[in-house]
Amino acid sequence: MTKTIYRPEYVALLALLKRYRAASGLTQAQCSEALGKPQSFMSDVEKGTRRLDVIQLRDLCQKFGVGLSEVIQDLENTIAEMEKQTPAP
Fold first, then answer.
1. What is the CA radius of gyration of the chain?
2. CA separation for the pair 3, 19 (Å, rounded)
3. Does the residue 45 lie in any domain?
4. Of 10, 28, 43, 47, which has the fewest CB atoms closer than 10 Å, so is most exposed?
5. Residue 65 DSSP class
6. Is 89 within a domain?
7. Which residues of the chain have pLDDT under 70?
8. 63 to each of 4, 5, 6, 68, how far by Cα in Å?
9. SS3 25
10. Residue 19's domain is classified under what CATH number?
11. Is the pTM of this model over 0.90?
């Protein structure tokens, strides 16, 4: 099985996180600070070179002013749309 960081679903999650961060008006540095991490942390997350654990994801969601379950549902909806657009093998 392909590592999750290389799967389209993971790319979709990263895009959602960027969108939520931008909508909240926060910079990458502010998000990193909220997690107690160096400025580069959120940049690395958004590039896909560093992963978040579920607690960090929850903390970010709170900082974005959105619930973790809402982000997960948004991800599920995005994945469902991706699957509709991709023909089965």
1. 14
2. 23
3. yes
4. 47
5. T
6. no
7. 1-2, 88-89
8. 25, 23, 26, 11
9. coil
10. 1.10.260.40
11. no
Residue 88 has a pLDDT of: 63
Domain count, the chain: 1
Sequence length of the chain is 89
C-alpha to C-alpha distances, 20 to 4, 24, 52, 55, 83, nearest whole angstrom: 21, 6, 15, 17, 22
Summary count for the chain: helices (H), strands (E):
5, 0
What are 33's two structure tokens?
Answer: 């600070």
pLDDT for res 1: 64
Host domain of residue 47? 4-80
Q: With beta carbons less than 8 A apart as the criterion, state whether 19 and 12 touch.
A: no
Q: Work out the end-to-end distance of the chain between its first and last CA atoms, rounded to an integer number of angstroms.
A: 16
17 to each of 39, 43, 48, 88, how far by Cα in Å? 16, 11, 11, 27
pLDDT at 89 (0 to 100): 62
